[in-house]
Design a protein that fits this description.
Length: 318
């Protein structure tokens, strides 16, 4: 089978298609012929040597895919801990998701990582409930747009941020009640003006150091800040007296490193609570761009330069 091998260059990435033996599924795994795979910032970190796959998982890049089950032809998408950027992948059975009715098979590759991350951290970790308020940073990313939709589906109001005014419309289209350009104003001021002080129940934050102080400022008493990445840096100053005064919780969360059993439970809960949203069309994968594997370097560069609004996909059938 062919798979993507990617390395950094001075001005972007170099991607080549290389050959490897097809994976041999172990008990509890299903062999999937990949139709499309999703590009994620975790891929960029792995390429840079900062984010290796968990022990025992494939070294090949890629955390999500769509395709057909080799044995049955069933259309599926899946979350994996590695190996998605290839023509074939051995997927843990508990991490398979049937492609929702009406969703294209290529687009379905943009569903697993983004929506499972959003659901895990807003609902399970953050406890976001109907009538609550959520703040989603980096709202135009694949996870961000999925998080906006997920929060609305759960019955919450949503504020979302972006550093680019050109991406504000993408936030609104996804359902954001308040779309904030942090290049022109502080998100703390925009939220206070629209919702008042201490108004946010759950913050989903992939930014890290630059936003933590502001997150705590807008948080309601008993609110939760869920940190899922550190794009602006991993070291931050925190006012512990404010944390105590608001009885707030600061939660660190990752998905890739969780066990297969934990991921299977997450996928089962996700299918029970969220699948209907995809079937009805209320939830959809927001696709920014699709590249053939021969142009994968452009896909990785587009993500590194933060030019995307939504998911970037590799189409293995093109």
């Amino acid at each position: 089978m062919r798979f993507l091998s990617v390395s950094e260059t001075s001005d972007g990435y170099r991607a080549t298609l290389e050959e490897a033996a097809a994976p041999r599924p172990t008990p509890g795994e299903t062999l999937v012929r990949v139709v499309a795979s999703g590009v994620n910032r975790a891929d960029l970190s792995q390429i840079a040597g900062r984010y290796p796959p968990p022990p025992g998982e494939p070294e090949i890049l890629g955390l999500e895919l769509s395709g057909t089950v080799v044995a049955t032809g069933a259309k599926v998408c899946a979350l994996v801990a590695g190996g998605a950027h290839a023509e074939l992948a051995a997927v843990p059975d508990g991490q398979l998701i049937p492609v929702p009715t009406g969703m294209g098979l290529v687009d379905a590759a943009g569903l697993p990582e983004a929506f499972l991350t959003a659901f895990l951290n807003l609902a399970a970790e953050g406890g976001l409930a109907e009538g609550g308020r959520a703040l989603v940073h980096a709202g135009a990313s694949g996870v961000g747009l999925a998080a906006i939709q997920t929060a609305k589906f759960l019955g919450a109001s949503v504020a979302a941020t972006t550093r680019s005014a050109s991406k504000l419309e993408a936030l609104r289209k996804a359902g954001a009640d308040l779309a904030i350009d942090t290049g022109s104003e502080r998100f703390e001021d925009a939220i206070a003006r629209a919702w008042g002080r201490d108004a946010v129940d759950v913050v989903l934050d992939p930014v890290g150091a630059d936003t933590l102080t502001g997150d705590l400022e807008v948080l309601s008493p008993g609110g939760r800040i869920v940190t899922i990445a550190t794009m602006s840096g991993a070291r931050a100053s925190l006012d512990l007296s404010a944390l105590m005064r608001k009885r707030a919780r600061l939660i660190g969360s990752t998905l890739r490193s969780r066990s297969r059993a934990e991921k299977a439970r997450l996928v089962a809960t996700f299918r029970t609570k969220m699948q209907a949203g995809f079937e009805s069309g209320r939830l959809r994968a927001a696709i920014d761009a699709v590249f053939p594997p021969e142009r994968a370097a452009e896909a990785f560069t587009r993500m590194r330069e933060n030019r995307n609004a939504g998911k970037i996909l590799i189409d293995w059938t093109s």
